[in-house]
Amino acid sequence: KAIIHHQLKPLSMLSQKARLIAEGHYDEPIPDSHHKDEIGRLQDNFQQMQQSLSAHISEMEQLSDTLRERGEKLRVAYNHAQKADRMKTAFLHNMTNQMLEPAELIKNDVNALCNLDHSPNTQQASAMVDDILHNGKTITELLKNLLNVSDEEKTAGELLMTEETTGKEGAA
């Protein structure tokens, strides 16, 4: 009976280690076998399987960590993009509001000029034309500012993309 117990001891140990691995203890070491029989080969194969499983689990954990980090970076970038979009919308709304008054004044002056009698007061007509020119210049300046900001954002975006691409190539 003692001989059978001694012969089955490696199988009992393998059974216990397999149960631990099944419970998620993938790093549970399986000792080297000193037997050259079927039980020894089985123990060696279990050891190789456990080491391979442990290596794959470690690799998956590293990939999971990398994906988690990238997800967080994407979340931060998305939040920045949303904030930039809100700022852009507010900026455009503000610029549009600044253009409404001069555009309305131009419309009113043009309508007034069109409705003057056939012999308009030269001084009055000249003042209206000056107002139209002034308000047109105001709108033009606002539009130039808007285009300049747009060009600056485009250039900054291109520089950022170039830096990111260069950084990735340098890391590769």
Question: What does this 3D model show about the protein?
Answer:
- The chain has 172 residues and is mostly helical.
- Helices cover 87% and strands 0% of the residues.
- The chain has three helices and no strands.
- Helix 2 (38-115) packs antiparallel against helix 3 (122-171).
- The longest helix is centred in the middle third of the chain and has 78 residues, at 38-115.
- It is rod-shaped and about 130 Å long.
- The relative contact order is 0.05.
- The mean pLDDT is 83.
Strand elements, count: 0
What level of helicity do the residues show? Answer: over 70%
* Overall 3D shape: rod-shaped
**Largest sheet, described in full?**
none
Radius of gyration: 39 Å
Mean pLDDT: 83
Distance between the termini: 63 Å
Strand content: under 5%
Low-confidence stretches: none
Derived structural class: mainly alpha
- How many H/I helices? 3
SSE succession: HHH
Question: What are the defining features of this structure?
Answer:
mainly alpha, 172 residues, 87% helix
What's the gist of this structure?
With 172 residues, this protein is mainly alpha-helical.
Strand and helix layout:
Elements: H1 2-22, H2 38-115, H3 122-171
Helix pairs in contact: 1-2, 2-3
